[in-house]
Write a structure and sequence with these properties.
Length: about 900
């Protein structure tokens, strides 16, 4: 794995990241144990009793009183939110395993709420915390069943900054504990693209997943903000030894939106109390920026005092400490060696050795993890404010702003032939978050950095790219530069790139009048949606591109040679999106038109257009699923043409697609042995491509592998079929982990085929597990988009009912079959001609299940309904349905005769 992928995504919060006991020693008894393996996360006990509050040492560093770990301020203002979390945890009829995302802007009070929720968790629960680690930690490898009755709550802060692979690894390991009840609270700033795809993956592991946004504090009319202010004021006064706290009044603008953040309320209270203690007016400027300026000035004064004390507690002056704090806030906690490298990179201006700078920094900001140094300045928003106020362009910028101009650039420098620094993602994530609130950081730091080195955007990860695109007034040139660095497909970035592409397209379309440019923008956006698997969103821009190119072809005969190929490509992409959203007739028409265009073009310029024609013909073959002979003919033509170009730049790609569809068409015609050779050849091509560029070609490899498994199964090569299909499942899992929304449906397909192969080999329990997982995935997909997924869900449920019956779970098999009938009833209600045949089959099977369960009257009624449906179908097309009608009548007759109804 590249270092950029292993980079620390984020420090956990000071509460959640405190991995030791309140006295600072390491936790003696880890939450789990057993044979160990390497991982990049750490699980430890949550500090239920709270950390010590060394307030005496913080009088000169008041900002530290804001940190939730010290528990200075009582929990106020979020009681309703706490009740909702408590109900979720304790729901007596809720799922065994559940995940809840708690999200809201920085400073909203998420960490404090999570800590109170954890602290209030009653006896009988284990309360753990999970943190992403800079280096490898060890976790158990063995499947563990928790002690009888074990209930576990896990807190995961900064969840959006974990790598998706590591977060899912944690969730998988937790699920393996098999607790009586498992609750995982994810805390994050946003529920952006990183979360939109995650619930699907979590549901694969058996979790019920949901999200709740933490609303701003209610305004003064309800008392929430005023109550929180007064509670904070009194506790800060106690901590700082201020007697007359009543002189610090509730700000007059407490109803302003800025005070919807709990942190802003606490900052106002702290600044007022500290000013009163220092003999200043207890009524500070209530502007949030002014509050942070005051607290950061106090922070700097503290550094200066430590340096100038007679005993010389720290060797570095305030300027050097500021540079160390600036660096730490960007990179997050690091190992000693990594920290030394980071400080050397930024070229701190000091004669003090780097290791001593690290030690002095630790005196001001002790690490919550004893294995790391360079603890950032917390709370996060105050750390971001420090970066902004230290950077040139802010009116209160510090004297070292000239150094800060190039600090991030130096920190993220990447010598040739080396991997990006381990802190790359963390630094970019912090810069992007800071840029959301501080425009001069965006224009003076972030944008120049990304314009000059747009490849850094790719190292930031998909979630950070999406967050970048959400910056108000983001520089379109930055987005354009990053998008230009993105390859055709990269599954770990595709979802974030799609968000970035949408924002860029919105800007370009608002400023572009030229029809050809507008068509290209729409087409490119639709392509990004295709890569991300967002086919529903891809239809509209693809159709826009088609409409514009069609008008251009008609309007300018002299430019036809330019616009007609573009029209053909746009039609092909539109056909793909339409096919994958269930609009198959429209998809066929679009792809046929695309093929017609490129047939004409290829006749005139074969070398230029033939490869594209091969690809479109391969897609067209896929559109003819209801006509296997036509599909075979088109696929055979595509394969024949494709072989001529197998050595061309994209020849192998086009040939593989043609061979896949040729194999499928031959299989549909019952020519299974003939289908094996082209499918195997396609798999060999895809495997070579995936070895060279896995992030681009693994989706194609997965698809052809499960097809090859089916061909091998029908050819009697069952063991090889199983091995190939298991490989397909493994590839699909990797894809779904990187982009769940785009590839979970493919994972379900592969799991279903794996279950079929396992059944054929008599491995019934394993088959049931695979089919059940496939059903679970598609059930959730159908909840999000019932129209797109219901038909395949019915197919999977039917397989599940067969597997359940095979292992003797007849009641469960009946339930699955009943659900199949419900799905087909819904489909047949809107399109009886297409779906009543499926309903008739499902009803006949349900009648059999009911009969086996001893529910004789219900069985007869359902079988009678199956006969009635078959009769209607036979009237319309007797040759197609007489066999089904005869079977259903036979079943009905047997059931009637069983109770003596001979007539």
């Amino acid at each position: 794995m590249r270092l950029a992928e292993q980079a620390r995504e984020a420090p956990a919060s000071t509460e959640v990241r405190d991995l030791g006991r309140p006295d600072g020693s390491d936790v003696a008894d880890p939450p789990w144990s057993g044979p160990e393996r390497s991982a990049r996360y750490k699980v430890s006990h949550f500090p239920r009793d709270g950390a010590d509050s060394p307030v005496e040492s913080l009088h000169e560093q008041p900002s530290q009183l804001l940190m939730a770990r010290h528990q200075i301020v009582p929990f106020t203002g979020r009681l309703d939110d706490l009740k909702r979390l408590t109900a979720w945890r304790d729901d007596p009829v809720g799922p065994v395993a559940a995940v809840r995302l708690l999200h809201g802007p920085g400073g909203q009070g998420k960490t404090r709420l999570g800590a109170r929720f954890a602290a209030d968790t009653p006896a009988g629960w284990q309360v753990w915390q999970a943190a992403y680690t800079a280096g490898s930690s060890t976790v158990p490898t063995a499947r563990r069943t928790g002690p009888p009755g074990q209930r576990v709550l896990v807190i995961v802060d900064y969840a959006e900054r974990w790598p998706a692979t590591t977060l899912m690894e944690l969730m998988h390991d937790l699920a393996r504990r098999r607790c009586e009840r498992l609750r995982v609270l994810l805390i994050a700033r946003s529920a952006g693209s990183w979360w939109q795809n995650l619930p699907h993956d979590l549901q694969l592991l058996g979790y019920a997943a949901g999200a709740v946004e933490l609303d701003p504090l209610r305004d003064g009319a309800t008392g929430d903000r005023a109550e929180a202010f007064l509670a904070a004021r009194d506790r800060f006064a106690d901590a700082l030894g201020v007697a007359d706290a009543g002189a610090v009044e509730v700000p007059g603008n407490i109803d302003d939106p800025a005070f919807g953040l709990m942190l802003t309320v606490h900052m106002a209270a702290l600044v007022g109390v500290d000013r009163l203690r220092r003999g200043l007016s207890p009524t500070p400027d209530p502007d949030p920026e002014a509050l942070s300026v005051y607290l950061l000035n106090r922070e700097r004064a503290y550094w200066h005092k430590l340096h100038t004390l007679a005993e010389g507690r720290v060797r570095i002056d305030a300027d050097v400490m500021a540079q160390a704090v600036f660096t730490a806030t960007l990179v997050g906690p690091l190992s000693d060696d990594e920290a030394e490298t980071a400080l050397q990179r930024v070229r701190i201006k000091s004669s003090v050795p780097v290791d001593e700078i690290i030690d002095d920094h630790a005196l001001c900001y002790p690490a919550s993890n004893p294995l790391t140094v360079l603890e950032p300045l917390y709370p996060d928003r105050l750390g971001e404010d420090f970066l902004a106020q230290t950077t040139r362009g802010h009116h209160a910028s510090r004297p070292l702003n000239r150094w800060a101009v190039r600090a991030a650039e130096r920190l993220l420098a990447q010598p040739e032939a080396t991997d990006p620094p381990v802190w790359t993602r963390s630094a970019l994530t912090v810069l992007i978050e800071t840029a959301h609130r501080w425009k001069h950081v965006a224009t003076g730091q972030l944008y120049p950095l990304l314009r000059s080195r747009p490849q850094l955007g790719l190292e930031a990860g998909g979630a950070a790219l999406a967050r970048l695109a959400e910056i108000p007034d983001v520089d379109p040139a930055v987005l354009q530069a990053i998008e230009a660095q993105v390859p055709d497909r990269r599954v770990d970035l595709d979802a974030g790139i799609a968000t970035l592409a949408q924002r860029l397209a919105d800007h370009l379309l608002a400023t572009t009048k030229d029809p050809a440019d507008r068509a290209r923008i729409h087409h490119d956006l639709s392509g990004r949606y295709f890569n991300a698997g967002f086919h529903g969103q891809g239809v509209e821009p693809a159709q826009e591109a088609v409409d514009i190119y069609r008008e251009l072809v008609k309007a300018d005969a002299s430019a036809r040679s330019v616009y007609e190929p573009a029209l053909g490509r746009a039609l092909d992409l539109l056909g793909i999106h339409l096919e994958l959203t269930g609009r198959r007739d429209d998809a066929l028409k679009a792809t046929e038109e695309a093929a017609s265009i490129f047939r004409r073009l290829s006749q005139a310029e074969r070398e230029r257009y033939e490869p594209t024609l091969v690809r479109i013909l391969a897609n067209l073959a896929g559109r003819h699923q209801s006509d296997p002979e036509r599909r075979r003919a088109v696929a055979a033509e595509a394969a024949e043409r494709g072989r001529r170009w197998a050595d061309a730049l994209h020849g192998g790609v086009e040939l593989a697609g043609a061979l896949e569809n040729l194999g499928s068409a031959l299989a549909d015609l019952g020519r299974h042995h003939e289908a094996l050779a082209p499918t195997r050849e396609a798999a060999d091509i895809r495997a070579r491509q995936a070895r060279d560029a896995p992030k681009k070609y693994e989706p194609d490899l997965a698809r052809v592998l499960w097809a090859l498994g089916s061909r091998l199964e029908r050819d009697g090569q069952r063991e090889e079929a199983l091995a190939v299909t298991q490989e397909a499942v493994d590839v699909c899992r990797r894809l779904a982990e990187a982009n769940p929304a785009g590839y979970e449906s493919a994972l379900a397909e592969a799991l279903n085929k794996l279950g079929i192969h396992l059944t054929a080999l008599g491995r019934l329990d394993e088959a049931l597990a695979a089919t059940q997982e496939a059903v679970d995935v598609h059930r959730r997909l159908a909840v999000a988009d019932f129209t797109a997924h219901q038909l395949y869900l019915a197919k999977l449920l039917n397989h599940l009912s067969i597997d359940l019956a095979a292992v003797g779970r007849l009641d469960d098999a009946f339930g699955a079959t009943r659900e199949v009938v419900d799905v087909y009833r819904s489909l047949a209600a809107t399109d009886p001609a297409t779906h009543e045949p499926g309903l008739a089959v499902a009803l006949d099977i349900l009648g059999d299940r009911l009969w086996g369960a001893g529910r004789l009257d219900d069985s007869r009624a359902v079988t009678q309904e199956a006969v009635d449906v078959y009769r209607r179908l036979a009237v319309a097309d007797f040759s197609a349905h007489w066999l089904g009608l005869a079977a259903a009548l036979n079943h009905l007759g047997a059931r009637l005769s069983r109770v003596g109804r001979w007539k």
